[in-house]
Amino acid sequence: MRVAAIAGAVVVVGLIAGVVVLSGVLEPDYDTSVVDEQTGAPDQQLLARGKYLARAGDCTACHTSEDGGAPFAGGVPIPTPFGTIYGTNITPDPDYGIGNWTSADFYKVLHDGIAPGGPLYPAMPYTSYRGLSRADSDAIFAYLQSIEPVPVPNRANEVPFPFSFRPLVRGWNLLFLRDELPAISAGTSDEWVNGRYLVNVLGHCTECHTPRGMLGQLKLSQSFEGGAAEVIHAPDITPAALAARGWTANDLQQFLAKGIAPQGSAYGGMYDAFHHSTRYLTEADNQAAVRYLTGDSPHEAVALKPAAPALAETVRAGRSHYLALCAGCHAAQGQGKPNVTVALAGNSTVRNPDPHNLLHVMLHGLEQKDFPDQQSRQAMPGFADALDNAQMAELANYLRVEFGGQKGDVTSAMVQAGR
Ligand code: HEC
Ligand code: HEC
Ligand code: HEC
After folding, report:
1. pLDDT of residue 3
2. Which residues contact 281 (CB under 8 A, 6 or more apart)?
3. Is the dihedral angle over the CA atoms 247, 250, 253, 257 positive or is it negative?
4. Residues sharing a CB contact under 8 Å with residue 246, sequence separation 6 or more, in sequence order
5. Pocket residue to mutate for ligand 1, from 62, 206, 218, most atoms within 8 A of Cβ
6. Could you count the other beta carbons within 10 Å of the beta carbon of residue 399?
7. Which of 5, 38, 63, 221 makes an SS bond possible with 87, Cβ 3.0 to 4.6 Å?
8. What number does the ligand 2 atom closest to the CA of 336 have?
9. Could you give the CA distance from residue 242 to residue 257 in angstroms, rounded to a whole number?
10. Which among 137, 169, 155 has a CA at the least distance from the CA of 89?
11. CB within 8 Å of 39: residues ≥ 6 apart
């Protein structure tokens, strides 16, 4: 926290000059559009398109409260290293929502992060939405104006000084807001170009999957190489890394559409992204997103290497923990059980060179989740109390070596850090 405070103070001093000189540069004015003057019955096609785009952009994730809040009425806490910022009311309520806005006000939020009331924190991912076309912004705006207005006031953010001084964000924007985000893969096909729009812009996938610097900015040189902003880390999803964990284009399509694939199931922040957003993509858009994830010339998925026949003593010890605690649900050879749970043999969480998520799931378990096609998964219990650090490391190493083709290099200290 002290480091952050010092960094903050430096930013205050350093950026204010720039802000004063350059404020206004990032605040172009936009024309209003036909959607503002619509009278009579709204254009159903436009509204349907807006609804689809709002889903592809997963606006609900941060604007609909999980404890029974009305759609888009706000109040969603977003923890950041700089304090808790709350998603706002974006229903058409004239007092508490965006009922009095024009389509130009709305576009300015998505493109520049500037609302009529002043600059927004980049917890609102305008860093990604900046690439949205004006037509698509207008469609989302028309849709949001058509939903039920909800008179719920916004929650005050809990952001300490200096970050509570909003004009700082203008300086942040000068430093870090870019017109275009780096591409995840190489490609030129129309499908790839569409996929780039769906992933880089609407899906704002980079906001979780890219590491961040001291000031919360995306480290663009490490785009999609894995982000650690939440307790469950978002893994490296660059094409080579996905292929190294065995993902094929078909598996990825299934993962985005159904949340469960041969490589594993969606959990943590990815479950939310899947549940509110990626599962609604049309088949063509799903394929385009995956084309962009793999590139026009996909890497060959790497098959799992069989483990050496003579397992080290410490790894063999893990097998008995596995049979006692895990095999009942994940099956003796880690092959999983249909309608119960996923395979751990070849699972991408187990194949990940970074054992962070594996340890997290083993220690703390997972919540109950629903998937399409009446697939529901019971909660997985956490095993923090069942095994001590050394035993937990033995189990993790057994899984990594036997089912993941990884090194058995998890230590007791790493388990302790995950507790
Ligand atoms: C990752 C979380 C997140 C997602 C996803 C997100 N928002 Fe936001 N949004 C926020 C936060 C947080 C704020 C408030 C920021 C602040 O207080 O500075 C905000 C503010 C806004 C505002 C300004 C409201 C006002 O009263 O000033 C609008 C409009 C908005 N978002 C629209 C959208 C739309 C449209 C989408 C989907 C395309 C979207 N948001 C997706 C987090 C998010
Ligand atoms: C009561 C049944 C149950 C037991 C016992 C159990 N799990 Fe799970 N496990 C699940 C469920 C359900 C999921 C959620 C994934 C899904 O949708 O199938 C899961 C998911 C996982 C995942 C995340 C992988 C993914 O792709 O979702 C890992 C890793 C995991 N389990 C490891 C273990 C280990 C190691 C043990 C023993 C210490 C264990 N599990 C014991 C039911 C169980
Ligand atoms: C809110 C944060 C968040 C967002 C937004 C997000 N992800 Fe994820 N993603 C995660 C987390 C956390 C995991 C690890 C858990 C899991 O495997 O489900 C993950 C896992 C994945 C995986 C599986 C990787 C593996 O090897 O297990 C893929 C593929 C993926 N994400 C793609 C995407 C794409 C494409 C988007 C944008 C449409 C996206 N993610 C948006 C957080 C996010």
Report:
1. 41
2. 56, 198, 256, 257, 289
3. negative
4. 263, 301, 302, 303, 304, 346, 348, 351
5. 62
6. 30
7. 63
8. 18
9. 17
10. 155
11. none
Is the CB–ligand 2 distance for residue 384 below 6 Å? no
Beta-carbon contacts of residue 116 (< 8 Å; ≥ 6 apart) = 101, 105
Interval 71-87: pLDDT, tens: 999 999 999 999 999 99
* Per-residue pLDDT reduced to its tens digit, 329-354: 999 999 999 889 999 999 999 999 99
Q: Which of 124, 127, 164 to probe ligand 1 with, by most ligand atoms within 8 A of CB?
A: 124
Query: For residues 357 and 232, is the Cβ–Cβ distance under 8 A?
Result: yes
Q: And the tokens for 392?
A: 């937990």
Structure tokens at 290: 């995956």
pLDDT classification of 42: cutoffs 50, 70, 90: confident
What distance in angstroms lies between residue 121's CA and the mean position of ligand 1's atoms?
Answer: 9
- Tokens of residue 364, six digits: 């703390």
Query: Which residues make Cβ contacts (< 8 Å) with residue 2, sequence separation at least 6?
Result: none
